[in-house]
Amino acid sequence: MRSATALLTPLVAAALLSGLAGCGTGAASAGGAAPSAGSSGSSNSTDGSSPVAAGTPSAGPLARSVPVRLEIPSIGVDTPVIPLALASDGSVDVPPIEAHSPAGWYQGSPTPGQVGPSVILAHVTVGQYGDGVFLHLARLKPGDRVVAMLQNGASAVFTVDSVQTVAKSRFPTSAVYGNVNHPALRLITCGGPRGSGRSGYPDNVVVYASLASASR
After folding, report:
1. Under a CB-based contact definition with an 8 Å cutoff, are residues 22 and 189 in contact?
2. CATH number for position 82
3. For residue 152, which of 65, 89, 95, 196 is within the disulfide window of CB 3.0 to 4.6 Å?
4. Which DSSP string do the residues of the chain spell out, in sequence order?
5. Residue 162's Cα: distance from chain center in Å?
6. What are the residues facing 120 on neighbouring strands?
């Protein structure tokens, strides 16, 4: 199955990825050179130079069904999931800047449990409302569990393969959106020290996970 970015021209893909920078302080470009998803590297990268070690899925793919809730027990996440489309400028919409802002699933990616990388993003902070749902995303470790609950009543349980903090100017496009032969999950938020005013955050935190089990 081809990923969302594989179907886009490089120019459109870069515009689409720029929306992933929205973290409650305004968007900044997240496009740029990307590491290869198939290369070897450490499980925790801080500069984008170490790509993602793919996990070994232990469950078969699920039928397409949109995610409605996300749970990450180790960092206390239990949030609704809303669908996110493309904005008029070609970037991915982000969840609203409001109290209790939920996570959002990018509709151009597979649903959780389908073959390919399903992309879910959320804010690390939400302006005057304080902490975002992905405030502690960077604390995840390989082996941690992520549960996506689907509209059809199924649950897709993923285990974290690796966590990467990378400068937005070096957003790992290929690693996030590149073709994979198993059900995968990508969780994305902002990272690094928060700038003053509307300068936002300099980095993105990306979590890579593979399907471990599923209930149907």
Report:
1. no
2. 2.40.260.10
3. 65
4. ---TGGGS-HHHHHHHHHGGG-SSS------S----TTS---SEESSS-S-PPP----SPPPPP--EEEEEEGGGTEEEEEEEE-B-TTSSBP---SSTT--EEEETTSPPBTBBEEEEEE--SB-GGG-B-TTTTGGG--TT-EEEEEETTS-EEEEEEEEEEEEEGGG--HHHHHS--SSEEEEEEEEESPPPSTT---SEEEEEEEEEEEEE-
5. 12
6. 105, 187
User: What's the CA gap between 13 and 30, in Å, rounded?
Assistant: 11
Closest to 161 measured CA to CA, from 172, 173, 145 = 145
Q: 96 CB contacts (<8 Å, ≥6 apart)?
A: none
The residue-averaged pLDDT of 107-111 equals: 96
Q: Are strands 183-191 and 116-121 parallel, antiparallel or unpaired?
A: parallel
Amino acid at 103: A
Can you give the residue range of the structural domain that contains 93? 5-215
Q: What separation in angstroms does the CA of 11 have from each of 8, 56, 81, 107?
A: 8, 32, 28, 19
Least-confidence region, from 3-12, 52-61, 196-205 = 3-12
Look at residue 31 in the predicted model and tell me its pLDDT: 29
Q: Is the pTM of this model over 0.85?
A: no
What is the identity of the amino acid at 137? L
Distance, in Å, from the CA atom of 31 to the CA atom of 171, rounded to the nearest integer, reads 5
Which region, left, alpha or beta, applies to residue 88 given φ > 0 means left and ψ of -120 to 50 means alpha? alpha
